[in-house]
Design brief:
By secondary structure, the protein is mainly β. The N and C termini lie far apart (about 65 Å).
């Protein structure tokens, strides 16, 4: 399993003035013993959860409970029926929020990364149909909720679950706040350390916990609704939240990506944060690979309290010699008061068959300790445009307790900021391991690059559940439309269908086609759920919906899948053979694709609508005493625009190759010239990059290259000095190009090896069919063509002594050369990954 990458830095934003005001007064908190301590607050309808709601707290766990749902912070949850909400933390620092809608639990959960014995500000925000978790002012996880909120009417409990005794917090809690508004990300970030007076708009409960004595703590937002001690005495009063003066840590690694790390030399990029209350400078930085320190540097930058910065190591790593590399970035400041956040690690695993990247491997999902949702962070290539197709492979297997017995919806999503994008959906089989299922997710290429947070979700109610394995397959090619623009249309997990009191009209969407769009389509994943209703909707009811453009019907969509009995995942339990509304048990859901290329207005606005067929559920009340589910649809849909040119500006310089020219005489070796081929792979002209080369991992030359490269252009740059080489030894050479505007650091370095006999190991040989004609050539004109399956990226031409004569970047699978002088030459074709093929050329008199 991969280590977690925290795409968002966890800002404290502890401004000195805020600290001075909030920490100058006596600051107490309450310690909960993790056995039976709690605070009890009488039920009050003002605390009932609504469509817009926020809960906040400062927490410091003495130790984490084994599961995230066991460490209750603030709750008013209950069962029979399930209702209310619970804010809790556990399982190695996992934060969780669960709330009931239609008496069904909806959960959002983070990855486990909070440390024990360290203060954190935590918040959960409900805004409409979205739940978001914040840690130290940054949004960390988000998840949709569906249905109508189900308040519990229960007392509020702090430190223990209100309705599930034994789910207790072990540690210190402070500054509990409840709001009947959805606090914005900026409000949460700016007010973590603010002392409120209790009259702020939307603040319905506020427990500063600053009394320091007695057996109750007051509510500044409602003086008549204090919290009473239960199984606690005055010894529970302890010092409240505090921040160390000096505390700096590494919160993530954002480069290199897992694909590139095994293709070429790389630099490591880490996100560093000042968690302390004082500014900090001269931060020592270290990289260790597989337990061995390999790079030590100093971050020459001052970080103010709460400030984060991206640090790019100058040293270069070559990870290609091992299949697995555990990279640990550390900071060890001599005055650091907290060592728990000093290290961050990521395990790089060579992609299977050079194209499969693992997301999850037999990860358990259940309605227990494992949870229904898993968040997994993966580093994908920044340059996804080199791939023609991206496939997602999904399979489920059975835990030791057996597979879950029910067909349940499940999906794979990516999280970008506070937004979630479903990229694939599947339905679990009845009590049987199945898969792999394959879903083409090329449409989501825009969101599948660089650091990506995946969310794997299976709606499962049993304690055993499923083991889920997911892999991405990256397939290269010559796709003429490699660039995508993705616009969400309708996204909901619970579109109520047929209730006269609830509109099922989806809002029409106004679309402005991009100026360079060459093709466009609508991608909709829609499935019907709920049964025992009129027409057995929406799971077993055949319905035909329509797609309207500017008020006119352009397509019918018959939502029905009638071939479930032919499912390769056969011999399941239950009703697996029955036809259903867009899905079958034990299969991935096929998206509905509608070509809109000819329909979208050029230079104007097009109105797109998806209209559900008229339907009224006559069994809308009571649902047979809860024995069936109201009809509803899960709908995630997008407009996908495609183009052969980029939709946004992009800056990217590539170090295509490096060449060392020698005199070719091992008995009297002379290193004559070092040059590198630089390519502008972006959309903007870039000037004066910094270039450098390293010999045997030691920086030899670094200088500004006075040049201007237009988009798509390449040039060979010759370094002004040749030094650092050792005659009689192998010399490993890295060449790097750096520009402050470069958006992809992963392709900035190339390498070559000059052996002790002055021959160059320039490439990993591959068998490529190459045609050369005429060869020999008498007039110096030469045509070269190669198998298009080999994605040649550069061509280098050498004379008989090994000197570089010409170098160029390639696009396509053919090129013509003009050689000026007779003699014997060698032509080398290389791809992006350093693989290549060498051919001889004879130029006659």
């Amino acid at each position: 399993m991969k280590s977690n990458i925290y795409i968002k830095s966890l800002f404290f934003l502890l401004l000195c003035s805020c600290l001075a005001s909030s920490l100058s007064a006596q600051n107490f908190g309450l310690r909960f013993d993790g056995t039976d301590d709690k605070l009890d607050i009488a039920a009050n309808s003002a605390y009932d959860i609504g469509d817009n709601y926020t809960v906040e707290a400062w927490i410091n766990a003495t130790e984490w409970r084994p599961e995230s749902w066991q460490g209750s912070i603030l709750t008013n949850d209950k069962q029979n029926p399930d209702s209310g909400y619970a804010f809790r933390a556990g399982k190695n620092g996992t934060l969780s929020f669960v709330m009931s809608a239609n008496n069904t639990w909806n959960e959002v959960v983070t990855a486990p990364f909070m440390n024990a014995k360290q203060w954190y500000h935590v918040a959960a925000v409900v805004q409409g149909n979205t739940m978001t978790l914040y840690i130290n002012g940054e949004p960390i996880a988000s998840s949709p909720k569906s249905g109508t909120n189900s308040p519990s009417g229960q007392n509020i409990a702090i430190g223990e679950s209100a309705g599930f005794p034994g789910r207790v917090f072990n540690g210190i809690l402070d500054e509990i706040r409840v709001w009947n508004v959805a606090r914005t990300a900026q409000e949460i970030k700016d007010n973590q350390t603010t002392d409120f007076d209790g009259s702020e708009a939307g603040l319905v409960a506020y427990f500063p916990m600053n009394e320091g004595s007695g057996l109750m703590t007051g509510n500044k937002a409602n003086a008549s609704s204090s919290a009473s001690f239960v199984n606690m005495d005055e010894s529970a009063w302890v010092e409240g939240y505090s921040i160390p003066a000096t505390d700096v840590g590494v919160v993530s690694i954002s480069a290199p990506d897992e694909w590139t790390a095994y293709k070429r030399p790389v630099r490591v990029v880490a996100n560093v944060q000042n968690f302390g209350s004082e500014s900090i400078s001269d931060i020592p930085m270290t990289i260790a690979v597989n337990g061995l320190p390999v790079i030590e540097e100093t971050m020459d930058q001052t970080l103010e309290p709460g400030e984060s910065a991206v640090y790019t190591f100058k040293g270069i790593l070559d990870l290609s010699d091992r299949n697995a590399n555990n990279v640990v970035v550390s900071t060890k400041h001599p005055d650091d008061a907290n060592s728990l956040n000093d290290n961050f690690s990521y395990r790089y695993q060579r992609p299977d068959e050079d194209r499969f990247i693992n997301i999850s491997n037999n990860e358990q999902h259940n309605f227990g300790g494992a949870g229904q949702a898993k968040f997994i962070d993966v580093l994908l290539p920044e340059d996804m445009d080199q791939f023609e197709k991206i496939l997602l492979h999904i399979e489920v297997s059975c835990p030791s307790g057996g597979c879950d017995p029910w067909d349940q919806p499940a999906n794979i999503s990516v999280i970008r900021g506070e937004e979630e994008f479903e990229i694939a959906r599947f339905i679990t089989p009845y009590r049987k391991a199945c898969g792999p299922w394959t879903v083409d997710v090329t449409d989501f290429k825009t969101y599948l690059s660089g650091p990506v947070k995946f969310k794997n979700f299976i709606q499962v109610w049993g304690p055993s559940g499923w083991l889920l394995t997911t892999n991405l397959e990256l397939i290269g090619g010559d796709n003429p439309l490699p660039f995508q623009k993705l616009t969400p249309l309708w996204t909901t997990n619970y579109q109520v269908y047929g209730d006269p009191a609830v509109s099922y009209d989806l809002p029409a969407q106004d679309i402005d086609r991009a100026s360079n769009t060459e093709a466009a389509h609508m991608r909709m994943t829609i499935t019907g759920h709920g049964q025992g209703n009129t027409d057995n909707a929406a799971e077993f009811s055949v319905r035909t919906h329509t797609v309207n453009l500017n008020g006119q019907v352009i397509a019918d969509h018959r939502l029905w899948k009638s071939d479930c009995n032919q499912n390769p995942c056969d011999n399941q339990s239950g009703t697996w053979e029955f036809a259903r509304a867009g899905w079958c048990p034990g299969e991935a859901v096929n998206p509905f694709i509608l070509d809109l290329t000819a329909d979208l207005a050029v230079g104007g606005t097009t109105t797109l609508d998806y209209v559900l067929e008229d339907y009224t559920n006559l069994l809308n009340t009571g649902y047979n005493d809860g024995n069936h589910t109201e009809p509803h649809y899960r709908i995630w849909s997008y407009l996908v625009e495609q183009s052969s040119t980029r939709f946004e500006d992009y800056n990217n310089l590539v170090s295509t190759s490096v060449t060392v020219q020698t005199n070719g005489d091992p008995s009297n070796p002379v290193f004559e010239k070092v040059s590198m081929l630089i390519t502008n792979n972006g959309t903007e002209t870039l000037t004066d990059p910094m270039v450098s080369y390293y010999v045997n991992e030691v920086l030899a030359v670094s200088e500004v290259a006075t040049l201007s490269l237009a988009p798509g252009a390449s040039m060979t740059y010759e370094f002004s000095e040749v030094k650092g080489f050792t005659a009689g030894d192998d010399n490993l050479v890295f060449a790097a190009v750096d520009h402050p505007n470069d958006e992809n650091i992963n392709d900035n370095i190339s390498k070559t090896l000059v052996r002790d006999d002055l021959t160059s190991s320039l490439f990993e040989p591959v068998d490529v069919a190459i045609e050369l004609w005429p060869n020999p050539t008498t007039d110096g004109r030469l045509n070269i063509r190669w198998d298009a399956a080999f994605k040649a990226h550069s061509l280098s031409l050498y004379d008989a002594t090994g000197r570089l004569v010409e170098q160029m970047a390639l696009n396509g699978n053919a090129v013509q050369l003009q050689l000026k002088h007779p003699g014997l030459y060698s032509v080398l074709l290389k791809d992006r990954e350093g693989r290549g093929a060498l051919k001889k050329i004879v130029v006659g008199q």
